[in-house]
Amino acid sequence: MNEVRIDRIEWAPLNGRRAREARGNAYTRSHGQDFLMPIARVTTSDGLMAFGWSRIDRQKADSLVGFSFQDAFHPQRGVSTDYLALDMPLWDLAGKLADRPVYELLSGETNTTALRAPCYDTSLLMDDLDLEDDDEAASLIASEAVKCATRGHRSFKIKIGRGAMHMPVEEGLRRDIRVIKAVREALGAEARILIDANNGYNLNLAKRMLTETADADIYWIEEPFHESWQWNGPFKKWLQQQGLDVLVADGEGVASEQLLTMAENGFIDVVQYDIFGFTDWVVLGPKLDAINIRTAPHNYAGLYGNCAACHLAGGIRRFEMVEWDEASATGLDASVYSIADGHVNVPRLPGFGLQLDPDVFQQAVRDRGFTVSNT
Ligand SMILES: [Mg+2]
Fold this sequence. Notes:
Pfam families: MR_MLE_C
CATH superfamily of the largest domain: Enolase-like C-terminal domain
Distance between the termini: 23 Å
GO molecular function: metal ion binding
CATH topology of the largest domain: TIM Barrel
Mean pLDDT: 95
Helix content: 25-40%
Number of strands: 19
Protein name: Mandelate racemase/muconate lactonizing enzyme C-terminal domain-containing protein
Domain Mandelate racemase/muconate lactonizing enzyme C-terminal: 138-246
Strand content: 25-35%
Number of domains: 2
Shape: globular
Keywords: Metal-binding
Radius of gyration: 21 Å
Structural class: alpha/beta
Oligomer: single chain
Bound molecules: magnesium ion
């Protein structure tokens, strides 16, 4: 391939909106409905454009512009450290240059059909905190779960930990349990139910929760408490003793440096580092495969992340599920990705296959972003 030079970098946040207001988790009362999705677009000297989620600032963009794609990207290792501020845009560009979807770059295979990536709905937050009555609260979350099922989801994640801050401990735990049981009842036996405490439990509360919901067949418990040798070891041992077949998932946000070692020791089953380190995942995923640890990147407020995460399923054997946060963003067309029967149908299009409306993006760049160019 001839040298490909990046002559222009443009950046702007686009306006994103969730399907409905996302309320609380264990430590916040509302995530709101609107969010900003930062997008960088790169243009090569030949005029080819690619784009992706990026938090690059003007100073960094100024220091990079004019670089050679071949210096920044390696087919096996992905984006080099100095260029990680453009991680996803450069993966998109790699796909466009090769005229292949990113998942094919990762698998090294040419797929004859579109990729189907397993996914779960992540929208069952604590929308019930203003309600006094537990039954009413449980019905509300169950009705939301049913709506998610009509959009094609078969796996559902419920936020728990109401008693960490929003309600007294005992009342919060009682409502968490009631909600889980109501969702199970509404969805039936086939649905996969995940629960996420955002570190709002402790070891004893986690044990109590799983004892009282043993008949709800929970697939994984995520961040029951901040991961530690002191608690995760005994927790896993207890699960085994109880015969509870529940996976322990952890790793989003500020994870312990010991997380991977804990996983290697069998204390954590599913690793959930953020999707926005796409290259990190490309490197880490196969290593986790080799030691039989499951992968499920954390993704929140990231319409772009919904779509990008799917591609990792092409390169990581033990890829569990995409965390799907239903949303739209003005100027970004993701309609080629569709959900059916618990999977995302991933388009067989170059790069990540998403479309950016040039007029909307350029207006956003003028209003609140920047352009740096080499010329
Ligand atoms: Mg989480």
